[in-house]
């Protein structure tokens, strides 16, 4: 027996050596050794028992004591000695006593040198946990005993991941508050996301606090620049927006490549509720055609905000009435292939009190009409396009995944990097952003009952096919719209993801019949339909390999590329408040010629609301220090060689993609003279993954630094843009063509090897980006 002194001396020895010695002592006389490497998150691990199991036999239960685990090491290695070869290890059983710790993966090396991988990547908080060997398997390919094991795993998860409808009209979500979430879906560290304090101070503490009349209207449009304090706007997209926001071209361009590039659609016939005549717009039409001929030629587009009709406005501010309307905007593709507005009606009903505003009206009438359209667009973007159609739908996918797919299912392994942490960021959003007293109610025209009504209406028309990018583009008739970079680059990303997903499907499903017999995937699809409030617009089963590949492509694309495109341009487009007012404080004009600049300034957000908006959109568009990009899988869920090759091919395809809007490109200082204010969203950020959102701590540090220095100094945090191109107001000169005396080009050479991030969010950086990052949905700090 070893003395107490000897044990103390042994405790000072290197952990791996101590573990090997102790286990060898325990198995004195046994000759075969299995070497085990365990990875964790570096936190302390309590004692546990470990058993190696093959198909027919198992090792003795080995006691692994806390001193042997090396305290806070991320990798722990030790030996397990046995009397005879166990054969291929198919699973590892861990037994614990009321302890919780994170298990990354385990690697077991047999006496013959053969290695077995056991990916886990979850918190262990049960008395007994079985971790299966990493090869993905369909349920029909398992033995009866393993099928029973899978069923028990899913039944346990279904007790934890329970459905509930948070509010009327919303899709189903997890039945848990933020502090009640399962450990596996929580952020790696607790984050502080107090946007209204920290984020706002990042830009306004040193400037607005000194203003008199903090809750009063601004006097002039230029006064909105005061909320930036000493922040350097030079050579940024936001600088372009500030200078050109009121031009019709900039207004129209944002329908194609701004924060909400999904509202515009081709107009083939004018609706009766919007009686625009040829005489009204004749001066805007440049091809010598009538309005009807332009409609037939496919040159007329429309953006209709009918979903807002009758929605009650925000009434949470007793001293400040907010107004909401449902405008309709008609747009025209002119000879320069510029999409410009030619008519705006500020309600869904024409008549004497609902005039149609035109570009040749009084400048203040036309300016305010465009502001009303952009204000409605802001609210629809935040609630429907961004929140519902990326965040909330991705939570439904994540919930159904946990409830219906075993950890060894190939689709579970495929989806987990893209949707992980979506539940957490949404739970944070429900408690701090869209709740009754949340940030959104302070900055927008919609709150409480209005939000519920908008969600209800959006859910009634929301379809699975609208998540399939090519189908969504086709449904809006936008296949040939000019300069639609969102479409062009989105198609490249969609095709790359679909090619990869099809590879995965073909590896594990050798026929359509195999898809039909996969009970877990069929229950997953059915559960998604349930999460969509039993929507008939979502499939309840899948019958072919092609259908499965498209479905999974839609899940990944929504959580990565689509979210990034819709989220990460907000600071540039919404930072300049007059460009997209979050709310309006005066009713829409019912007659022409009644508006002046004072009325406009009293309509726009006041100083307090302006600072809240700026701080919020800044917080929603922050990047983390360690971003994951589409195609990067730091967690090794797949262990088979064919899957490793498929991932390599995917990364290669992403590297080959050249982007204009969602790039991993390096835009040099020579920019095409009129690729506009910037091809934001995808070109502005990187495709990020939901999996790594919620970095509020980083945002908080930047807030404090900015509050002290009155500026954000990191060129990495706020990417800079090259000198802005000159935009001509004249519709007679094609500003999309470089000046003949100056050669301009775009360098689309990929720099860096990150590529797109398949994880779960898509952001794209402006100039100097190195890849598309996939970050999960983030309602707060990064990538929300």
Provide structural commentary:
With 784 residues, this protein is an alpha+beta fold. It has helices spanning 4-11, 15-26, 144-160, 195-204, 237-244, 248-257, 278-281, 291-297, 363-404, 410-419, 422-432, 439-443, 449-461, 469-475, 485-508, 512-517, 519-531, 545-567, 570-574, 597-603, 607-620, 641-656, 681-684, 696-709; strands at 32-40, 48-54, 62-64, 75-82, 89-96, 101-109, 115-124, 128-132, 163-165, 172-174, 265-266, 300-304, 328-333, 339-345, 356-357. Strand 9 (163-165) and strand 10 form a beta hairpin. The protein is elongated, with a radius of gyration of 29 Å. The termini are far apart.
Which stretches are low in confidence, meaning pLDDT under 50 for 5 or more residues running? 1-28, 190-212, 662-686, 688-783
**Helices and strands: which structural class?**
alpha+beta
Terminal CA distance reads 59 Å
Q: How many helices does DSSP assign?
A: 24
Based on CA atoms alone, the radius of gyration comes out at 29 Å
Number of E strands: 15
Order of adjacent strands in the largest pleated sheet:
11-12-13-14-15
User: Portion of residues in helices?
Assistant: 25-40%
Percent of residues in beta strands: 5-15%
Quaternary status: single chain
The backbone outline, from C-alpha atoms, is: elongated
What is the averaged pLDDT score?
79
């Amino acid at each position: 027996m070893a003395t107490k002194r000897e044990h103390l001396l042994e405790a000072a020895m290197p952990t791996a050596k101590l573990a090997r010695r102790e286990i060898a002592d325990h198995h004195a006389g046994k000759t075969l050794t299995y070497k085990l490497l365990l990875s964790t998150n570096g936190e302390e691990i309590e004692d546990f028992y470990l058993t190696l199991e093959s198909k027919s036999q198992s090792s003795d239960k080995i006691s692994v004591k806390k001193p042997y685990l090396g305290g806070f090491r991320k990798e722990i290695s030790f030996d397990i000695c046995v009397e005879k070869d166990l054969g291929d290890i198919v699973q590892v059983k861990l037994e614990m006593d009321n302890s919780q710790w994170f298990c990354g993966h385990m690697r077991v090396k047999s006496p013959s040198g053969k290695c077995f991988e056991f990916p886990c990547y979850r918190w262990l908080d049960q008395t007994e946990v079985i971790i299966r060997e990493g090869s993905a398997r369909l349920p029909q390919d398992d033995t009866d005993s393993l099928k029973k094991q899978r069923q028990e795993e899913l039944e346990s998860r279904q007790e934890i991941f329970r459905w509930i409808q948070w509010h009327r009209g919303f899709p189903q979500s997890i039945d848990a508050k933020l502090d009640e979430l399962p450990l596996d879906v929580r952020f790696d560290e607790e984050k502080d996301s107090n946007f209204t304090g920290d984020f706002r101070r990042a830009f306004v503490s040193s400037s607005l606090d000194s203003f008199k009349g903090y809750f009063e209207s601004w006097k002039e449009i230029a006064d909105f620049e005061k909320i930036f304090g000493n922040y350097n706007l030079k050579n940024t997209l936001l600088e372009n927006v500030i200078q050109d926001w009121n031009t019709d071209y900039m207004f129209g361009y944002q329908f194609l490549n701004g924060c909400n590039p999904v509202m515009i659609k081709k107009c083939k016939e004018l609706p009766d509720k919007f009686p625009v005549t040829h005489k009204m717009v004749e001066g805007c039409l440049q091809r010598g055609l009538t309005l009807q001929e332009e409609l037939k030629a496919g040159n007329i587009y429309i953006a209709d905000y009918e979903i807002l009709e009758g929605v009650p406005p925000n009434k949470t501010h007793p001293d400040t009435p907010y107004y909401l309307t449902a405008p309709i905007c008609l747009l025209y593709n002119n000879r320069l292939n510029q999409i410009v507005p030619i008519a705006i009606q500020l309600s869904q009903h024409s008549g004497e009190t609902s005039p149609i505003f035109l570009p040749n009206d009084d400048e203040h009438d036309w300016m305010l009409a465009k502001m009303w359209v952009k204000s409605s667009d802001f609210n629809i973007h935040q609630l429907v396009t961004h929140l519902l159609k990326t965040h909330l739908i991705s939570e439904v996918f994540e919930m159904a995944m946990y409830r219906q797919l075993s950890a060894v299912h190939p689709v579970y392994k495929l989806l987990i990097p893209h949707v992980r942490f979506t539940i957490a960021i949404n739970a944070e959003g429900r408690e701090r952003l869209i709740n009754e007293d949340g940030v959104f109610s302070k900055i927008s025209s919609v709150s409480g009952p209005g939000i519920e009504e908008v969600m209800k209406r959006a859910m009634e028309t929301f379809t699975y096919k609208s998540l399939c990018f090519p189908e969504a583009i086709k449904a809006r008739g936008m296949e040939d719209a000019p300069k639609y970079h969102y479409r062009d680059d989105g198609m490249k990303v969609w095709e790359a993801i679909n090619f990869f997903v099809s590879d995965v499907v073909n590896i594990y499903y050798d026929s359509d019949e195999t898809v039909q017999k996969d009970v877990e995937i069929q229950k997953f699809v059915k559960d998604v339909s349930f999460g969509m409030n039993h929507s008939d617009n979502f499939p309840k089963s899948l019958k072919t390999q092609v259908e499965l590949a498209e479905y999974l492509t839609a899940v990944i694309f929504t959580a990565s590329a689509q979210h990034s495109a819709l989220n990460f341009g907000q600071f540039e487009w919404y930072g300049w408040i007059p460009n997209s007012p979050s709310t309006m404080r005066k009713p829409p004009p019912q007659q022409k010629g009644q508006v002046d600049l004072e009325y406009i300034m009293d309509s726009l957000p006041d100083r307090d609301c302006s600072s809240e908006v700026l701080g919020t959109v800044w917080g929603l568009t922050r990047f983390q220090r360690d971003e994951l990009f589409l195609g990067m899988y730091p967690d090794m869920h797949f262990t088979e060689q064919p899957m490793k090759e498929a991932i390599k091919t995917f990364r290669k395809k992403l590297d080959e993609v050249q982007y204009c809007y969602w790039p991993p490109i390096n835009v040099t200082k020579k920019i095409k003279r009129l690729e506009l204010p910037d091809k934001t969203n995808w070109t502005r950020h990187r495709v990020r993954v939901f999996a790594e959102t919620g970095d509020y701590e980083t945002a908080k540090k930047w807030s404090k630094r900015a509050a002290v220095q009155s500026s954000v100094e990191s060129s990495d945090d706020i990417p800079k843009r090259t000198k802005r191109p000159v935009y001509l107001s004249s519709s007679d000169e094609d500003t999309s063509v470089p000046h003949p005396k100056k050669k301009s080009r775009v360098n689309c050479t990929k720099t860096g090897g990150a590529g797109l991030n398949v994880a779960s969010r898509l952001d794209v950086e402006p100039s100097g980006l190195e890849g598309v990052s996939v970050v999960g949905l983030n309602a707060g700090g990064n990538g929300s």
